[in-house]
Amino acid sequence: MTTLSPPKALFSYPKYRGKHFSSASQLPTNLAEMEALGWDSCDMVLVTGDAYVDLPSFGMAVIGRTLEAQGFRVGIISQPDWKSPDAFRSLGKPNICWGVTSGNMDSMVNRYTSERRIRSDDAYTVGDVGGKRPDRAVTVYAQRCREAFKGVPVIIGGIEASLRRIAHYDYWSDKVRHAVLLDSKADILVYGNGERQIIEIMHRLAAGESIKDMLDIRGTSVMCKGVPDGWIEIDSTEIDTPHTTIEHPNPYQMQQDMPCDDKAAYREREQAPPISILDVSEKRAHTVIRLPSYEAVANDEVLYAHASRLLHLETNPGNARALIQKHGGREVWVNPPAIPLSTVELDGVFDLPYSRLPYIGYGDIHAKETRIPAYEMIKTSVNIMRGCFGGCTFCSITEHEGRIIQSRSQTSILREIEEIREKTPKFTGNISDLGGPTANMYRLKCKSEAIEAACRKPSCVFPDICPNLNTNHDPLIELYRKARHLKGIKRVFIASGLRYDLAVKSPAYIKELVTHHVGGYLKIAPEHTEAAPLDKMMKPGIGTYDAFKKLFEKFSKEAGKKQYLIPYFIAAHPGTTDQDMLNLALWLKKNAYKADQVQAFLPSPMSTATAMYRSGRNPLKKISRTQSKYAEKVFIPRRKKQRDLHKAFLRYHDPDNWAMLRTALKKMGRSDLIGQGEHCLVPDDTQKGKDGRSSFQQKRAAHHFRTQHTRKERRRR
């Protein structure tokens, strides 16, 4: 293991096949299309769980086009039959390597609901048909690639691989699973947005280097034999005892938080001279933190929370250290995150020659049987940035894309809007979104590069907005104005999630948004009203939402428009009690809001909220086996009955939920909320319906009808 390789400019490499290598209208998916391009083989074959759409919103298209720009011949195998290796041989043997991903979504999230029910649809599949990808697609695809052509290196990446780079809790099997490198038997894992990593890997492989020697690439994870010579190892396998010495900084400690007197006493106690910043930086670059082993976190919930806390403290590319975790007799090594792309590099990725269309072989993209819902939803949307510094504990964006915002230039964004106008069939003049992970973080970043590089906080906006964060929305306002004045553009809508605590810092932005870019309704996600669950989510208090709502309504009225906010809330999030959900339901009733859909918490791999769900501890604070001033246990609404109740509180207006809510309210000592009064949450069971029957009678009649229907069906069979 050597020093991490310094990043090269993304497009500074000499082309592998020379400057005259031309791009394909679409990447080939079969031998006939390869022959039409004059290719006898592919350098890399990309395997994806999504339908192939040549659009910069689809990860495999981005990776394929980025490598094509480097002079590599890239083919795509989309949604192959995974039951045998035959489909994986359709493009022949790759000259250099395989690239494998589940697609834009985690395959388990894509295939199952939060209640572990199989979905019948798949928005990333032709015809919206479910079942076109396997469970844990990355693992299955990688194994089939191995079987198809032995000896060809396998690189895995995408959101599914990113979230499984260490031992992780798997909600669907209710157990801790190995790091995906072991199960997939891949050679290297690329986590995060992978352009920088994959380009370096491909050029080094093409130069004859063995993939087994590529241990020094940021944003990757590999298998290793142990900590190499010359590296400092911090043993953090015990709770809060990482054996700290002056050379081994505590992974929990942020130096700026240590009082000056403590620092002096610490140095005096160790009888060591003060260490220069340069010396600390050099040592840090050769420091690895040993996480508790797979066996330890699988059998000890508290150690699982401890490992999660350590992982999330080591996510800033400016100061992150390598991680190592033992799995039986093998070791998983996780390098620090890749250096974020510059604006010039990001522009280069989005300016590549995408056709902006689904694979031509699918047929008429407007026909129902060949329609790809995800493409229809985002074909006229533009991604203006990457990353999110919000740090919401239930969200996987930060774990995947990082918290440093990477923004495109206005020129590149406006050029893409013009491409949409020219290339999109039946374009109506409406841009469906200018956004990304968050609608209004464009060009927002730390005021100081030095502070940003040293910061180890998981969020820049919780519990309050950091004073070092630039919250100026003027560049975004200017972008909106330029976009809507382009020739042929009628309307530009904003559909990405809005960070309203940032928006209230710029009333001018809210005015611009509601006056020109809201189509009647704006979706927004306060997630809850109560402090306890909001703290576990790292979301602002409901007062901030109220402040945004006031400005939204004020500027909508000034614009002469009737526009409405659609707030989204989460049920059954860690830290949420029945009382919290009752208070939320009362808030909804008071504000005359009736939710059509309910979002229940889904523990995705590696998120902080999932660590809470698994362990009952709060990894946002110091981890301990006992409740203390510094450590906190978290209430988990884990049982299905309680999760159903929390969802029922969100849909208090649904008669199907009234019986459940009455029972719960009586147990909670809140029978006063049952009845006909305006203050009541649900009616009592004597309330008459339109047919004159009570709700109890209606429910009994419905049950009788279902029973009789079932009997008739049985007789018919």
Count every beta strand, where a strand is a DSSP E run of 2 or more residues: 21
- Strand % is 5-15%
Summarize model confidence as the mean pLDDT. 90
Summarize the amount of helix as a percent range: 25-40%
Instruction: Name the CATH superfamily assignment of the largest domain.
Output: Cobalamin-binding domain
Poorly predicted ranges: 242-280, 710-717
What class would the helix/strand composition place it in?
alpha/beta
* Sheet having the most strands: 10 strands, mixed
Please tell me what the overall shape is: globular
CATH class descriptor of the largest domain: Alpha Beta
| Order of the strands making up the biggest sheet | 2-1-3-4-7-8-12-11-10-9
End-to-end C-alpha gap = 68 Å
How much is the radius of gyration in Å?
Answer: 27 Å
Query: What's the architecture of the largest domain, going by CATH?
Result: 3-Layer(aba) Sandwich
Task: Characterise the protein shown here.
The protein is of the alpha/beta class and about 725 residues long. It folds into 5 domains: about 10-220 and about 340-360, 3-Layer(aba) Sandwich (Rossmann fold), CATH 3.40.50.280; about 225-330, no CATH class; about 380-515, Transcription Regulator spoIIAA (2-Layer Sandwich); about 520-660, Transcription Regulator spoIIAA; about 685-715. It contains 26 helices and 21 strands. It is globular and about 75 Å long.
